[in-house]
Amino acid sequence: MGAWGFNTFENDGALDWLDDFLDAPSEKKILEAFSAETTYIQPSLMGRLMGKKPEKFTEELEGDEVLAAGEVVATISGHPANSNPEELKTIPKIHLAPDTTTRALAAIEAILANSNLKDCWEESDDFERWKTTVEDLRERLELLPWSPASRK
């Protein structure tokens, strides 16, 4: 049975992402966690003959990976969570583009609004604790000088 807890790094998906990130830390790996892959589904031959256009399909973000990458951004930027694992205390400084925070916040909002991860937590007794953890991450990212919230 895998790890499952309301703090970000109490979950297998987040820990796996962190291990992969720590093998070769880069902003690219962080940004990949915030990006959903989009593909186009081609209609059948009959559909094309009838004028059907390809349908856009966007994969859902991996919630645990989004939250792990968000914690890495917050940690690199000087706003770590108290519950972070030891490995994050020695994370190398990586230059992050200003839009990294914007992308992190957008991905976190998507997770909170409508995601498989949120659905799983809503069925748990710890939903409110998980939601508080995610909202804390969002608030720490909003403290960063280049976040959309700090520009208001």
What labels would you give this structure?
152 residues, mainly alpha, two-stranded antiparallel sheet, 7 helices, globular, DUF4259 domain-containing protein
Explain the overall architecture.
It contains seven helices and two strands; from the N terminus they run H-H-E-H-E-H-H-H-H. The protein has 152 residues and is mostly helical. Helix 1 (12-23) crosses helix 4 (63-76), helix 2 (27-33) packs antiparallel against helix 4 and helix 4 crosses helix 7. The protein has one domain. Pfam families: DUF4259.
Query: Largest sheet at a glance?
Result: 2 strands, antiparallel
Average pLDDT works out at 86
Strand residues, percent: 5-15%
Structural class: mainly alpha
Could you name the ranges where pLDDT drops below 50 across 5 or more consecutive residues? none
Number of strand segments: 2
Q: In sequence order, what are the helices and strands, one letter per element? A: HHEHEHHHH
The number of helical runs is 7
What Rg do the Cα atoms give?
18 Å
Give the proportion of residues in helices.
40-55%
Dominant shape: globular
Count of all domains = 1
Q: How far do the termini sit from each other?
A: 45 Å
Protein name: DUF4259 domain-containing protein
Pfam families: DUF4259 (PF14078)
InterPro entries: DUF4259
